[in-house]
Amino acid sequence: MMKFRDALLLAFVVLQSVSYAEAYLCMCSPTNCVLIHPNTAFFDSAENYCSSFRTSAYEISIIKLMDTQLSSEAFVKFPNMTSLEIFQGQLEKIAPDTFNGAGRLMKLLIRGNSLANLEDYTFKGADNLRDLVISASPLKRISEKAFANLQQLEMLILAHGDIESLPKKLFENNRMLKMLSLNSNKLTSIDADVFSGLDELAKLELADNQLKTFDYKFLKAAVVVLNNNSLQHLVINEHCSAVYASNNEIETISIDGSNVLKLSLNHNRIHDVSNITKLANLSSLSLGSNTLESNSIFSPLVALEELILQSTYINLTRSTFENLSNLKILDLSYNNLTVADFKIFNSQSALQILSYVGNRIPNFNYFEAKQILPRLRVLEICKNGWNKTYFEYNIMRMKRFQINPDIHGFASHFLFRDEYVDMCTEKLIEDYNYDDYPEPPADADIEDEIKKSYPTEQTLPTTTTVSTTQDTIHQNVHYFPLTPQSNHHISEHDVPVTSEPTVKKQQPEEEASPLLITFQVLVYILSVVGLVSLGVVAYLWRKRQLDVRRLAASPESADAVRLI
After folding, report:
1. Which of 106-110, 310-314, 509-513 shows the lowest per-residue confidence on average (mean pLDDT)?
2. Where is pLDDT greater, at 550 or 109?
3. How far is it, in rounded angstroms, from Cα 228 to Cα 245?
4. Exposed e or buried b per residue across 94-127, where buried means at least 16 C-beta atoms within 10 angstroms of its C-beta
5. How far is CA 99 from CA 92, 123, 131, 149, in A?
6. Mean pLDDT (whole number) for 535-550
């Protein structure tokens, strides 16, 4: 496959230097052939343009076909062809006898041509075809028997065209079909009989169409993609395990069965989630940009591992996520939150990624977050109305608790750090104070001192109240009960701290520079090599001296005396 891609890349490079008026070009290797600017005359005498590898090549790529159709003799000169791609050409019609000489063809891709119609038995002769892709063509009309002879067909993609309707019995003879894609067409409705008999269908893609309803109780597809349509009501049958229906107008959902594992419904008009919460096996749920009821509860979804709730504006309480002990990813971005209360996550000990992007939260208690969520590794705090200084200060504090501010690691990468900070401190709203953000609280290092004093989990900290004015932040320090083993610590931890802390600030240990470490390693290696070299030279010199003396002492060798 890599060799075929390399050949295609070479063909594109050569194509830049070949003008439209010049002759055909054929490049063949033992496995593939690339044909540039071919027409009917070329196929009639292909042996004059292609090398002897032509007969053994099984992957054929045609770039910029110069005829509107292919002759019935087009592929006789390529007897071992199993894969054919027709890319960026002028193909408008496929005659019923075009593929008579393509009995071994298993994969056909037609992209960027002018094909508008598919007549009955268009692919007659290619009875072993498994994959058929027709995309980026103005395909509008498909006859009922267009795929009648393709009984082995497993993947069919008819994307980026102008298809408005499908014949009822279009796939009557394609019972082996496993993947069907009709993305980016003009379908407004599909008759239920179209999918009749497709018992092997695993994935159905209908994104970027104009569908208004989707109700197919006998559809066997496990994965259904319905993004970017005009759906108002969605029916999910018992065979579906994953449904993607974002960017619609869905208000109500009917669910038969409980086999759905993944449900994506971003950017719709959903208010009530009661039907959704009946899916006991659901592991991933996306409801972003839906105006959900403020008291929405997700506690019945005990198997949930991923929950996306950006721009839903719900009220967060302890009961909102209760019983979600398997939850690993939670997105609460863009909800106009002003407080990050980690106590509502008491039952989410498995939570690893939590996003508060795009809110109005002035301060995060990272110590409390790590105590309640011990597996938390990413806490996204971007775009909370902070200036650069305060945002970078928070990044530094998060490192102490082994928490990353973004899932991709941009904040710690020297190439992307500055851009990341700029992006996260840009203005989101006009009525928020960005310039005069308060200085970091004075008791920042007390959390580290507490962490050293109480390394094991004890009583969870009490609620932290934060009152923010334009100039200052007053932060009440938590109370921690002392155990008998910790009486030797200063009593300062038992009372609230309201003034400057007297705890001595611990100087951070300076880590060795990578360049310094590299230099030291090189010096060590060079020293060893130098010592070894000196030893070898000394050994060779000593050996030579002994050999000369041995020759000088031999009375039978005149040459030895002569050498001395």
Report:
1. 509-513
2. 109
3. 7
4. beeebbbbbeebbbbbbbbbebeebeebbbbbbe
5. 15, 6, 15, 12
6. 79
The tokens describing 245, both together, are: 């229906």
In Å, what is the CA distance from 556 to each residue of 543, 544, 551?
A: 22, 20, 9
CA separation for the pair 110, 86 (Å, rounded):
5
State residue 252's pLDDT score: 93
147 token code pair? 């795929």
- The pLDDT score that the predictor gives to residue 349 is 92
DSSP notation for 329-374: EEE--SS------GGGGTT-TT--EEE-TTS------HHHHHHH-T
With beta carbons less than 8 A apart as the criterion, state whether 107 and 131 touch. Answer: yes
Do β-strands 329-331 and 353-355 pair in parallel, antiparallel, or remain unpaired?
parallel
Q: Where are the alpha helices (DSSP H) in 230-357?
A: none
Q: What is the mean pLDDT of the chain?
A: 82
State which H helix or E strand residue 546 sits in. helix 514-552
What is the rounded CA–CA span in Å between residue 334 and residue 337?
Answer: 8
Residue position matching structure tokens 């940009």: 289
What share of the chain in percent tops pLDDT 70?
77
> What is the model's pTM?
0.73
Q: Which residues contact 379 (CB under 8 A, 6 or more apart)?
A: 354, 355, 356, 364, 366, 369, 398, 403, 404, 405
* Exposure class string for 392-427: b at 16+ Cβ within 10 A, else e: bebbebbebbebbbbeeebbeeeeeeeebbeebbee
Give 483's contacts (C-beta < 8 A, 6+ positions apart). Answer: 458
* Token reading at 123: 């692919």
Helix, coil or strand: residue 389: helix
The distance of Cα 248 from the centroid of its chain, to the nearest Å, equals 23
Cα–Cα distance between 318 and 315 in angstroms, integer? 10
pLDDT at 101 over 90: no
User: Please, which residues have CB within 8 angstroms of residue 240's CB and are 6 or more apart in sequence?
Assistant: 219, 221, 222, 223, 224, 259, 260
DSSP state of 44: H
Report the range of poorest mean pLDDT among 174-183, 229-238, 478-487, 516-525: 478-487
Q: Let me know: does 163 contact 186? Beta carbons within 8 Å.
A: yes
Q: DSSP of 500-536, one letter per residue?
A: ---SPPPPPPPPPPHHHHHHHHHHHHHHHHHHHHHHH
Mean predicted confidence (pLDDT) in 511-538: 84
Cβ atoms within 10 Å, residue 325: 14
- What confidence score (pLDDT) does residue 417 get? 92
Domain map of the chain by residue range? Answer: 308-498
